[in-house]
Specification:
The protein is mainly alpha-helical. The protein is built from 26 helices and two strands.
Length: about 475
């Protein structure tokens, strides 16, 4: 265009291109001007992908709509369940939802193991085109691809890669960490060791033993915790030997004796006994007792003292150092995932806030057994251990647990009891029932809650939220079954 304007300004006697007449120049200029005004179609580029994907069948429309609603913020707590339903039914995420689902994997590392199994070949290809979604690409299946991401990517993506690997292949995750552990900054070492604790395996022990000598206190502390969780690790054996001279059982007096030294060795400090600068001496001593016991295998304590768990707990509860003893046993049960000890400690503590972390160790059957024991027909209030247990537990409810809760709730309502002061705990427990009850019981729960709404209108503000969640879950499951 500029060349044509220049040609016109020079005049017909000084034509740059003698093949063009003045009229041709003006005609061309007019056409180019009009073309610029109207816009131009871009040149067509080559297709990014011209093949086809051998994908599984996409989940049905009804379930896709449920997932879309969840992704939009409605019942976000059901996303994992919705994705599991797709996996269990050998389906895949619909193509139109892939970008937002892949984005969810960026924010929630715990969802990645699910996502990468249900995005299909289409999702895997999309992930290879966007560096942010690389966690779901085929490159993550090779050491070369993993190593490149680990070495070159940003902190957020590195955190996601490590969390994903520790779930899928903990040994490979450890090898990735070791590949540059010695050159990591202290801040990086902290987040790495925090993620590293997921899915511990015996082969982690040598690396964690070396990490006990880290310059960073957090890395040392977390490493000691993880080693205490590994069955028969060298640390648990060392701490057991240390315990024998400090915490022992006197069979004649039927009591636990605690003899804490004035100063602890550097070796026991390295293995997890922390220094505390508190003024309350008894508090410091209880913490020291807890540090030692939490790193000892519970079965070793049982065998050495020749006592059953219930006997040990009962004796510890009467001791001067009961706080440290019971906390130590609780931490040991949590780290070792000892459900039997956890259940006994929860019962002893009456599901107090300090012990509710032990609930996640229990499977559905063990939780059912606990709830049956707690169900004594007492009035429902926020101090009732049954309410606390149902509120805090995050695993699946059994049919028996659901029935116990509904019977107690209806009994409470029939006594014309209000929910003043109970709104949070009752609302939370009802939501837990709607979210965690077996899918086979959703129809029954829906009918039950609808009857309460009809017969006791004053309770609608409490019931409606759980009822809506129940209906949503029911529709979600029905949609997949209709695939």
């Amino acid at each position: 265009m500029k060349a044509l304007i220049s040609q016109a300004l020079l005049g017909s006697q000084k034509l740059i291109d003698n093949s063009l007449s003045p009229q041709d120049i003006l005609d061309r200029a007019a056409r180019l001007t009009l073309q610029n005004e109207l816009g131009m179609l871009p040149e067509r580029s080559e297709a990014v992908f011209s093949g086809s994907f051998k994908d599984k069948t996409a989940c049905p429309l009804g379930h896709a709509q449920a997932i879309a609603a969840i992704l939009d913020g409605r019942y976000a707590e059901l996303l994992a369940e919705a994705l599991i339903l797709i996996l269990e039914n050998n389906l895949r995420i619909p193509s139109e939802l892939l970008p937002i689902v892949l984005d969810k994997g960026l924010k929630f590392n715990n969802l990645r193991p699910l996502i990468i199994q249900i995005v299909g070949e289409t999702g895997e290809y999309l992930a290879s085109q966007n560096p942010e979604w690389s966690y779901a690409s085929a490159a993550m299946n090779s050491w070369e691809g993993l190593s490149k991401e680990w070495q070159e990517t940003n902190i957020h993506r590195r955190q996601g890669i490590l969390a994903q690997l520790r779930h899928k292949d903990p040994d490979l995750g450890r090898e990735l960490v070791e590949s540059r552990w010695e050159t990591e900054s202290l801040s990086a070492a902290i987040w790495i060791i925090n993620i590293f604790g997921k899915n511990l395996v015996a082969n982690d022990e040598p690396f964690l033993e070396r990490a006990l000598d880290s310059r960073n206190a957090t890395v040392r502390r977390k490493s000691a915790e993880y080693l205490a969780a590994l069955a028969d690790s060298a640390l648990t054996m060392r701490m057991f030997e240390n315990m024998n001279g400090i915490i022992s059982y006197n069979a004649n007096r039927q009591e636990i004796e605690v003899n804490l030294p004035q100063e602890f060795s550097a070796e026991i400090r390295r293995d997890g006994l922390m220094k505390r600068m508190w003024n309350d001496i008894l508090k410091v001593e209880n913490a020291q007792v807890s540090d030692i016991l939490s790193a000892v295998r519970l079965e070793h304590v049982q065998d050495y003292w020749n006592l059953k768990p219930l006997e040990i707990i009962a004796i510890a509860a009467e001791n001067k150092y009961s706080t440290g003893l019971l906390k130590g046993f609780s931490l040991a049960a949590e780290r070792q995932k000892n459900a039997y000890w956890a259940k006994l400690l929860l019962e002893q503590d009456n599901i107090a806030l300090s012990s509710t972390r032990l609930l996640h160790i229990l499977d559905s059957e063990q939780f059912t057994s606990l709830i049956k024991k707690l169900d004594n027909g007492d009035f429902l209030d926020k101090e009732n251990p049954l309410v606390r247990a149902l509120w805090r537990y995050q695993g699946s409810w059994s049919k028996e647990v659901l029935e116990i809760w509904l019977l107690r709730l209806l009994s409470h309502i029939k006594k014309n009891s209000g929910f003043e002061g109970l709104e949070l705990s009752l609302r939370s427990s009802l939501k837990q029932a709607a979210r965690l009850c077996p899918s086979t019981e959703l129809e029954k729960l829906k009918i039950y809650l609808e009857k309460i709404n009809t017969n006791y209108p004053s309770w609608q503000t409490i019931i409606n939220e759980a009822l809506a969640l129940t209906k949503f879950r029911l529709q979600m499951h029905q949609a997949v079954k209709g695939a």
